[in-house]
Each structure stands twice: as C-alpha cells, then as structure tokens.
Design goal:
This protein is of the alpha/beta class. It has one domain (53-252): Rossmann fold (3-Layer(aba) Sandwich). It has 10 helices and 10 strands. The chain has an 8-stranded mixed sheet, sandwiched between helices. Strands 2-3 form a two-stranded antiparallel ribbon. Helix 1 (3-12) packs across helix 5 (87-99). The longest helix is centred in the middle third of the chain and has 13 residues, at 87-99. The chain is globular. The structure holds S-adenosylmethionine (SAM). S-adenosylmethionine binds at residues 61-63, 66-67, 84-86, 89, 111-113, 130-131, 133, 214, 216-217, 261-264. S-adenosylmethionine (SAM) binds at residues 61-63, 66-67, 84-86, 89, 111-113, 130-131, 133, 214, 216-217, 261-264.
C-alpha cells in the first residue's frame, strides 16, 4: 500500500464524523451463512453521531462523498450519511466535513451488504444510489435487486424513497423493471435529466439532481452518456421478486466506460 493511502488511513482514525467498524465485529460466518451483529450505533445515529436529530438520508456507494456533502449543505433540515467500503475515498469527504464543521453529514465505512447492522427499522428516511455499478452479469449484486431492496426495506421508514441517479441505461431499465414487476410506486423518473423532463419531481429535487455533479458524473457526461433518474417507494408486503428483463439486449447497448465503476464485488 502506498504511503499516501497509509497516511489517509491514519488520519481517518481522527475524524469523529467517520465510523469505521472492524468488519469482523459486524459480520461473522456460521453454518447457515453470514450473521450480522448489531453495531451499538444502530437506532442511535440521532443523539450520538448527530447532535441535532433530523431525518436521516443515506447515500450508498458515496465514494469521496461529493454528493452527500452537497446535499447536506443544501438541505440542513436532514442528516446525511455516506456509506462506502473504500477508506481512501471516504477520507476526502470526512476531511471536508471536519474542516468545514458540517454538522449534518457523516460517513460509514462498511459494505452495503451489512447495512442492517447499522440502522434500525425505520431509522432511515431516504436512500440515494449514485452511479452504482450496474453489475451487468450478476443480478444479486445490483443495488436495486430484490436482495438489496429486502435490506433497504428493513431500515427505510414506510413511505421513504429510493433514488437512483445513474449513467447506466442497463441499471435504469433494470430498476424500472424491478419497480414495475413488484408493483412499486414510481414517484419520479427521467431517461435524460439534462436533455428532458423529470416527471414527478418537484423543483428542489430537480435542482438537487441537476446541479450536483460528482467527478464521476462529469467524466461520464464527457463521454456522451445521458444521466437518468428514478425515485421509487419500496412499500410492499411479501418478498421482492426478480423482474422480467432482457439483460442481453440492455447489455448490448450499454457502452464502454474506460474509468470503470470500481466495484467491490
Ligand atoms: C462509481 S463509484 C461512485 C461514487 C459516487 N457515488 C459518485 O457519484 O461519485 C461507486 C462507489 O461505490 C462503492 N461500492 C461499490 N459496491 C459497494 C459495496 N458493496 N459496499 C460498499 N461500497 C461499495 C465503491 O467503493 C465506489 O466508491
């Protein structure tokens, strides 16, 4: 590991806005598979990490935290938490939050697969998925797959929304198929947020999705990709099911991204 990365990892230990649990404390294997162990912060983010209790919004796969920070600065009535597994990226966001005294933003270093160990039922008011890896070959790893929606449902309060902002036509179409195949309410959608309308979204929401552009998004726009948006509820009784979806066709129109999605799968 490079010296720069080691230095960031050392500095990460000093940031009070960054929670970095030891993976072994959160998930252990037994005969039945992976068992999650509740972290002490579960159910207590408001009151411990955040001194001013406000509805909590997550960004899953936040990278350097650019989106979380911009949302927190624009919407002080919410508390935001960026989740990512990569410590060197989280360092950038955590450093900014620390240096700017931003009291409504924090970060959690963990795998998204372990999210239920950190949040109690209904503790989360909303979830953002921004430029997630479309996982062209592995449905169960897609962040809008039934498997992940089950996890989100256990922490998202009733009526809460999942918001997907993506440059991937494949992931957008797949997520639409999941929503319709499970009878989920689509509150807003757009296949091109800059070139077209964003049906269902109010003005503040449109501003948040159009005016916040991460480094990743700018690279994708420079390659000519359009940016898509989908906001949907996940209130549903019973298990989520895999949708009918022509993966071969959508893979064939997906296009190359030389910078990749840096998936951890
Ligand atoms: C393409 S980047 C997007 C980063 C950021 N949302 C943006 O728009 O700039 C995807 C991020 O998701 C993170 N990620 C992917 N799968 C993950 C997982 N299962 N658990 C935690 N983080 C994950 C990666 O580490 C990476 O930082």
């Amino acid at each position: 590991m490079g010296h720069g990365k080691l230095k960031k990892f050392e500095e990460n230990k000093t940031f009070s806005c960054l929670l970095q649990p030891d993976g072994a404390d959160v998930a252990r294997k037994d005969e039945g598979g992976l068992v999650l162990v509740d972290h002490p912060v579960k159910g207590h983010w408001n009151g411990t990490v955040f001194h001013d209790p406000r509805p909590i919004i997550l960004e899953l796969g936040c990278g350097k935290g650019e989106y979380v920070i911009a949302l927190a600065e624009r919407n002080p009535e919410y508390n935001y938490i960026g989740v990512d597994i990569k410590g060197a990226r989280l360092w950038k966001g955590a450093k900014y939050v620390t240096e700017h005294g931003l009291s409504n933003a924090a970060f959690l270093r963990t795998r998204i697969e372990f999210i239920e160990a950190f949040f109690g039922p209904g503790e989360v008011a909303g979830i953002w998925l921004t430029f997630s890896d479309p996982q062209l070959r592995k449905e169960s790893a897609r962040l809008t797959s039934p498997r992940f929606l089950e996890r989100y449902r256990r922490i998202l309060r009733p009526g809460g929304f999942v918001r997907l902002k993506t440059d991937s036509r494949f992931l957008y179409e797949y997520s639409l198929a999941v929503a319709s195949g499970n009878g989920l309410r689509i509150a807003a959608s757009s296949a091109d947020i800059y070139g077209g309308t964003v049906d269902g979204a109010d003005e503040d929401e449109i501003r948040d999705i159009r005016e916040i552009k991460t480094y990743y998004e700018k690279m994708s726009l420079a390659l000519g990709y359009t940016i898509k948006y989908l906001k949907f509820g996940i209130d549903r009784d019973g298990a989520f099911v895999s949708p009918e979806f022509d993966a071969d066709y959508w893979r064939s129109v997906e296009g190359e991204r030389p910078f990749g999605y840096t998936s951890v799968q």
